[in-house]
Amino acid sequence: MKRDLFWYLRRSKLDHLLFLIADAIRGMFDHNEPVMTVPAVQLDGLYPRSGNVTVTAWNLSDLAYLAIRESNDFQAREPSVHDLVALCNLFLAWDEQRSREECAGLSNDEFLLKFSVGFSQKQFWYQELHRIRHDFNRQVELLEVIPAELGSCAELDAACVAATGFDVKTFRVILFGLYVVAGTRADIAHITSDAGGATKFHPALTAKNVNTVANLYASDYAEIRNSPLAENHFHVKPVVRTSSDRLCALNTYLFAKKVADGPFWAIREHHRVAGSQAFVNAFGGYFEYYVEKLLRHCLRNDRFTRVPQPRRGAYADWFLYTSKYRVIVELKSSLAALMIRRLYPDIQAIRSYLGKFQKGILQLDSTEQAYPDPSRTTIKLLVHYETLYTSDGALRPMVVESVAGQLKNANNVYFCDIGEFEWLVCIAGASESAAENVLAAKIAAEVHPELGREFTQVIPRVTELANTYIMKHIDHWASYIPGLRHAAGAGEE
After folding, report:
1. 3-class DSSP state for residue 377?
2. Can you tell me the distance from the alpha carbon of 116 to that of 445, in angstroms, rounded to the nearest whole number?
3. Rounded CA gap, 28 and 61, in Å?
4. Could you give the C-alpha distances from 412 to 12, 109, 139, in angstroms and in order?
5. Where are the CATH 3.40.91 domain residues in the chain?
């Protein structure tokens, strides 16, 4: 009988395997190599056979979930690094079969949704670590700087304290400290600090506080096995508590993400459990204010204006102008649920999320009809906070088609995430001609989509101008905890 992946997992000592996986992922993170080709030797009958195995950080994380589901700490066999490579090879074969089963019977649109959203959300961010730094900068603006400017810090801090025991700033500082610790070792139980230690960087970085947050993000085997999120449970709690009460920092990439978005999700979950939409509504307001600050920093006052709103219904949010173009902008601040951020996402969850974009497209269309501009080419831009990677090339055509019968003009409608929008606005502020060339190239990309239709693909073909707003103007990553960031490398450019 062929011995498959699960046969080997059930005979492997679980805690030993988890720490092997954690060490491997940390090494990949340190070298910024989330995909590696590893030589391997396998027995084929009586003869060894040499070959290569592709090992990825996200597959290792999913392998850890399967191991927790299938094994325990009391098996006798302690797997070696060579065993881990062999398990990765078996995992790839199992996952290929799983992929066929997941996609069987899907329509073309359903397959495209599942593939474009699932594949990108699962894998792309591992390969673009600079996005974590950018997201960190935005999150500090949105949950710390802007609330302070608007006088609403107290409400956010109260919710964060209720959820974590710490206010927003302190919680993020401790997450940063935990990330640094997890970047040096896999076993983070019983963290201690030397005299003067980390508290020289920030007084909140005590061993007690870091241990408290480490335990906040820890799950035992039973919780992981019973989680409806399956392998995505590690996005919520990336620490595994073993049977011997060791704490395994499983995935360094997820710890880096927690530094950026940990306070957001803690506050959001607190309000969700309470049945309140207060934070979701407040975040939408912070996002609108964030975009206004971006525009005021980058553009002359005559290059942008708010869209006057009707007495009934709603129009889009902003007009942006160049000599040749008018861009109508509609903002969407909602973030995708975890059931979407997986390799095989729930189709209905995706459709529900994209349904929010249908309303945005209708608002863009009605705004264009209410405010015609015959002297310029009009471009309608739906700007979403969530990074969806393939939103314009894969998702936008489907969403536009779903409301095509209600549109007066379906031409020049595009999607972009907030990072792409920041980039476009920075270019417009630095060079009107470069911005117009980008917009012309974006329209032309509809005729030649094989060159890539996302703004992240179009812009580098046209200009070398960068997103200086996120990289320089609000670079909180560089100054948040002076000195400590040098102990961590995520997102360094």
Report:
1. strand
2. 19
3. 12
4. 56, 22, 30
5. 278-473
pLDDT at 485: 56
CA distance readout (Å), 241 to 25, 84, 215: 18, 21, 9
Which DSSP letter does residue 208 get?
H
CATH match for 278-473 among 1.10.10, 3.40.91, 3.90.550, 3.40.50: 3.40.91
Share of the chain above pLDDT 70, in %: 94
Q: What is the pTM of this model?
A: 0.91
Residue 117 has a pLDDT of 78
Low-confidence ranges of the chain (pLDDT < 70): 1-3, 40-50, 193-196, 338-339, 483-493
> For residues 204 and 268, what is the distance between their CA atoms, to the nearest angstrom?
23
Edge-first strand listing for the sheet containing 218-220: 218-220, 239-241, 247-249
**196: which 2 tokens?**
């003067």
Residue 360 near residue 396, CB atoms below 8 Å: no
End-to-end Cα distance, the chain: 51
What phi, psi does 305 have (nearest 5°)?
-160, 155
Q: How far apart are CA 241 and CA 222, in angstroms?
A: 10
Record the tokens describing residue 491, joined without a space: 């997102």
Q: What is the mean pLDDT of the chain?
A: 90
